[in-house]
Amino acid sequence: MNNKPSSHALDARLEQGREELTAVVERLTPGQGVHATRWPALSLFRADSPSVPICAMYGPGLGLALQGAKQILLGQQTFVHEPASYLVTSVDVPVSSQVLRARPDEPCLCLTFQLDLQRIRELLPEVKAARAAPVSSRGLAFSPLDAGLLDPVLRLARLLDAPDDLAVLGPLIEHELLYRLLTGEQGAHLAQIATSGSQGHQVSRAIDWLRRHYDEPLRIDDLAGRVNMSASSLHHHFRAITAMSPLQYQKQLRLHEARRLLLADQCDVATAAHRVGYESPSQFSREYSRHFGAPPLRDVARLRLADADAVA
């Protein structure tokens, strides 16, 4: 006798779980934007209308789009995140993200679970099941959502209204969630990034150094030496994971930070350029325009107008 659930039953379970989780996220996000939760690793997002592209730094995490759709640009690659898939980010990557599909009566709803690579590293010896080969070596990749992964996310979301239960059961559910990720389609890549001494882990260390020193001059030979790689190997594996070279990655970090400074009204264009490592304000303005499609002040004015329209 075969007691294995049919594909129809699994599809029905997935759809039912997704509908329940969507309802929970919509209830817990009364307004637009990112919402923290009682579980620090878990955050929720809501948008009631499409948006202009915005810069973001995606750290290691699991992302679920529950309703609506978002477009994500990494390097020259474009991805569309919809409810049928889950997103895994294994390293810090600078992206451009925008809401494609949302309206007030059917908002774009997303959930993000921040991944602790140290916890993943500790869990690896317990993972006995063979992990499938990674679909992509990219630091950002998508796979089809299945009920096995959705279940622990849904149970954790249910506990957000029961803080006493969350404190006791949350760590157990998080352990299961990490296990599901490691035995899923992206598990091999996550394991490779988390394993000390692996090429993926060495690239992760290079990314961490760039994040902390983006405003300093960059010599590839020096960076390669810091992470015990040859310059050619670093360049090859860095591009495979981030879809850009270390120099391109540094440039995006600089431009994203400059945009943040300008939006926060913390300085003028020349000062922002200097703070993020540019010696020439004119070179900064040229590269900013190429990257964001408009000179700094015009781009910032456009973003502020879009934010005002969204609030209105």
UniProtKB/TrEMBL annotation:
<feature type="domain" description="HTH araC/xylS-type">
    <location>
        <begin position="204"/>
        <end position="302"/>
    </location>
</feature>
<dbReference type="InterPro" id="IPR009057">
    <property type="entry name" value="Homeodomain-like_sf"/>
</dbReference>
<dbReference type="InterPro" id="IPR009594">
    <property type="entry name" value="Tscrpt_reg_HTH_AraC_N"/>
</dbReference>
<keyword id="KW-0805">Transcription regulation</keyword>
<dbReference type="InterPro" id="IPR018062">
    <property type="entry name" value="HTH_AraC-typ_CS"/>
</dbReference>
<keyword id="KW-0238">DNA-binding</keyword>
<dbReference type="Pfam" id="PF12833">
    <property type="entry name" value="HTH_18"/>
</dbReference>
<protein>
    <submittedName>
        <fullName>AraC family transcriptional regulator N-terminal domain-containing protein</fullName>
    </submittedName>
</protein>
<keyword id="KW-0804">Transcription</keyword>
<dbReference type="InterPro" id="IPR018060">
    <property type="entry name" value="HTH_AraC"/>
</dbReference>
<dbReference type="Pfam" id="PF06719">
    <property type="entry name" value="AraC_N"/>
</dbReference>
